[in-house]
């Protein structure tokens, strides 16, 4: 699992990164809202931990922009004060949970765990759009000029790509995300399913494609 | 007294021209099979449009039932349908047919890349061939039209099943039926694309 931590207090950031890494999360540290958005443009995360009070761009503004971009990665807000208004504003802006400083590390870990677990059940939105292409996850159908049906894993894979358009996703990362509970598969399946999706995108005259070589990283591009 | 054919004195030519085109398609198909073991088509249907359907079509189009209507105004007196296993084979057939000498493509419609709104997929070509026979406009050697439809087995099975449904467009749930038939077309298209991709992956590994 990969986390983004946005926290401007250097000491706290360092301590949290150490604990999270130790707990098995790959963690990137941003020190303000602008930097957090830059990280999100490049990478995908399973969850974001974000301080509200940060220089350049505060956590609420960054969170609002993240949601405006159609990114529904779970966000845990860290609030300095126990003000009710602060928490309400944060939740309204699209936060999934909040934690008031000072907090116990144990509780932070428990909340991150709960948030990423919850995400699995309702992360799928009904329909996603990138370029001229619409993915209907409920009907397992992708359409542009034509429409075509998708298998379940093709739908999950395309959804992952569309939520992370223009980002480089490694074969490993894709396999872990889409085939995580599938013990019968190995990583070769990623290349095969990327090939299926490429053909299907062509078949509907899509203006997006998936760049990348076998066993390497792949990027969904708008042409 | 027997009624004169709508194709007039050109009737016998149509069968000969049809046979010639089919022969040329079979020739390149045999050559490819010798060379690579690939069967470029699964089967082929070739026919001269029957008297009755040609007369009926003239009526429908508001044309007189004459040889000129049948052979000059309409273009499907000669019809060939080529059914292929894979999508790429459809395009390979199109490429090879276009390379025939004495043949001009008058019209092409790629309903595979641009499926019809109801989900219909197929590749349509209207061709004009030069023949050693006189044609209805008096040219000798003359030119005759033919229509060629190319599609995969899956596309063909959808088209023939959809054709058999003959559902009434004004019944209550017709919207549902239309959208479900389209879903079937999209699912069959998904199989076609997947099978093609699997074939490509196998070819790549060999």
Tell me what the structure shows.
The complex is a heterodimer of chains A (223) and B (206). Chain A is built from eight helices and twelve strands. Chain A is α/β, with parallel strands linked by helices and 223 residues long. In chain A, the strands form three sheets. In chain A, strands 2-1-3-4-5 form a five-stranded parallel β-sheet, with helices on both faces. In chain A, strands 6-7-8-9 form a four-stranded antiparallel β-sheet, covered by helices on one side. In chain A, helix 6 (152-163) packs across helix 8. By secondary structure, chain B is an alpha+beta fold. Chain B folds into two domains: 8-153, 2-Layer Sandwich (Beta Polymerase, domain 2); 159-205. Helix content of chain B is 49%, strand content 19%. A five-stranded mixed β-sheet of chain B has the order 1-2-5-4-3. In chain B, helix 5 (153-165) packs antiparallel against helix 6. The relative contact order of chain B is 0.14. Chains A and B meet through strand 9 and helix 8 of A and helix 6 of B.
């Amino acid at each position: 699992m990969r986390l983004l931590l946005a926290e401007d207090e250097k000491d706290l950031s360092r301590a949290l990164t150490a604990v999270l890494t130790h707990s098995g999360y790959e963690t990137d540290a941003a020190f303000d809202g602008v930097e957090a958005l830059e990280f999100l443009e490049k990478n995908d995360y399973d969850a974001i931990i974000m301080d509200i009070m940060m220089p350049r761009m505060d956590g609420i503004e960054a969170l609002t922009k993240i949601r405006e971009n159609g990114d529904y990665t779970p966000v845990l807000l860290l609030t300095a004060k126990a003000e009710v208004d602060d928490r309400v504003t944060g939740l309204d802006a699209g936060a999934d949970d909040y934690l008031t400083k000072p907090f116990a590390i144990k509780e932070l870990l428990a909340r991150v765990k709960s948030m990423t677990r919850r995400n699995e059940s309702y992360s799928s939105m009904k329909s996603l759009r990138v370029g001229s292409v619409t993915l209907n996850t409920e009907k397992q159908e992708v359409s542009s000029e034509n429409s075509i049906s998708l298998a379940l894993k093709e739908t999950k894979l395309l959804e992952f790509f569309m939520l992370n358009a223009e980002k480089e996703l490694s074969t490993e990362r894709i396999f872990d995300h889409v085939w995580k509970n599938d013990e019968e598969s190995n990583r070769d399946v990623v290349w095969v399913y990327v090939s299926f999706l490429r053909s299907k995108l062509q078949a509907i005259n899509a203006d997006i494609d998936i760049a990348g070589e076998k066993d390497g990283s792949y990027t969904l591009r708008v042409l | 007294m027997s009624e004169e054919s709508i194709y007039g004195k050109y009737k016998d030519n149509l069968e000969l021209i049809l046979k010639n085109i089919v022969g040329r398609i079979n020739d390149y198909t045999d050559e490819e099979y010798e060379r690579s073991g690939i069967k470029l088509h699964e089967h082929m249907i070739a026919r001269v449009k029957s008297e009755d359907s040609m007369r009926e079509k003239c009526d429908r189009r508001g044309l007189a039932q004459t040889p000129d209507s049948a052979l000059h105004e309409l273009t499907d007196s000669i019809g060939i349908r080529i059914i292929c296993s894979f999508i790429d084979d459809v395009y390979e057939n199109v490429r090879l047919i276009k390379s025939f000498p004495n043949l001009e493509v008058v019209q092409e419609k790629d309903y595979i890349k641009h499926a019809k709104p109801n989900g219909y997929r197929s590749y349509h070509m209207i061709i004009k061939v030069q023949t050693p026979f006189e044609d209805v406009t008096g040219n000798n050697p003359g030119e005759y039209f033919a229509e060629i439809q190319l599609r995969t087995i899956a596309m063909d099975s959808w088209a023939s099943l959809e054709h058999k449904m003959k559902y009434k467009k004004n019944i209550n749930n017709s919207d549902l039926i239309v959208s479900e038939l389209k879903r079937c077309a999209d699912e069959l298209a998904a199989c076609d694309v997947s099978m093609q991709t699997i074939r490509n992956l196998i070819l790549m590994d060999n």
